[in-house]
Amino acid sequence: MNTYALETENVTKTYQSESGVINAVDEVSLQVKLGEFVALVGPSGSGKTTMLSILAALLKPTSGKVILDGQDLAAMNEVERVSMRRNKIGFTFQANNLVPYLSAVENVELMLRLNGRLDKTGKMRSRELLARLGLAERLHNLPGQMSGGQQQRVAIARAMIHNPSLVLADEPTASLDTERAYQVVETFAGLIHEQNRAGIMVTHDLRMCEYVDRVLQMRDGKLVKIYTNKTEIMDLVKGKTN
């Protein structure tokens, strides 16, 4: 049985500029298993954010395949991609994008409401997931009444409440201090493993790679190295490798 939730084959995204064609993503092939948490790293301009947008079905690649649960996102029309985003993909943003006038639990329930799945069971699961994230006392707080770390945990709950196959995080710790950043990523990793999702995190902070199973390194639009050995990953975290 194929345990890959996500596979890409030679994914390329090109843009036309005054100086010619730019390959923001250049023939990237990767696989992510169910229950695996992967970091996508690289310098600014390496293509990692563009790649994440393609995986989230927000951008259509110029060429190549993006296979999620056996379906090619690249071959879908916009209506089909919207459906996949709602049902199969969870996404957390650097700015968390919580609705400011909704409480923590209402923000999480919103994802179920959009999918027509907000029933009694869904409401109970929303509360249980927030409690699992240490927010049992914050269910009815507005985002403005919570710390940055608490808001990011609400965003994680919202990204996972509809049982997506793939969960994506774009710089989820960029606005947090170090202690809260570690807490958020450790919690995120735990949920990915426990709920058997495929998770990908784009991060500029290599210290956060301590909690991932593999590290994919991009440069100039290409996937240049994959770290799978835990010792290698920890060397990367400690700045002992390139």
CATH architecture field of one domain = 3-Layer(aba) Sandwich
User: Helix/strand-derived class?
Assistant: alpha/beta
Question: Treating each run of at least 4 consecutive H or I residues as one helix, how many helices?
Answer: 7
* Percent of residues in helices: 25-40%
Q: Report on the biggest sheet.
A: 6 strands, mixed
Per CATH, the class of one domain reads Alpha Beta
Alpha carbon gyration radius: 18 Å
Low-confidence stretches: none
Strand content: 25-35%
Order of helices and strands: EEEHEEHEHHHEHEEEH
Number of strands: 10
Q: What's the average pLDDT?
A: 91
Shape: globular
- By CATH, the topology of one domain is Rossmann fold
Give a structural overview.
The protein is of the alpha/beta class. The protein has a domain at 4-95 and 165-237: P-loop containing nucleotide triphosphate hydrolases (Rossmann fold, 3-Layer(aba) Sandwich). The protein is built from seven helices and ten strands. It has helices at 48-55, 78-88, 104-114, 120-132, 148-160, 178-195, 230-237; strands at 4-17, 20-33, 37-41, 63-68, 71-72, 89-92, 166-170, 198-202, 214-219, 222-227. α3 packs across α4 (120-132), α3 packs parallel to α5 and α5 runs parallel beside α6 (178-195). It starts with a strand and ends in a 5-residue tail after the last helix. The mean pLDDT is 91.
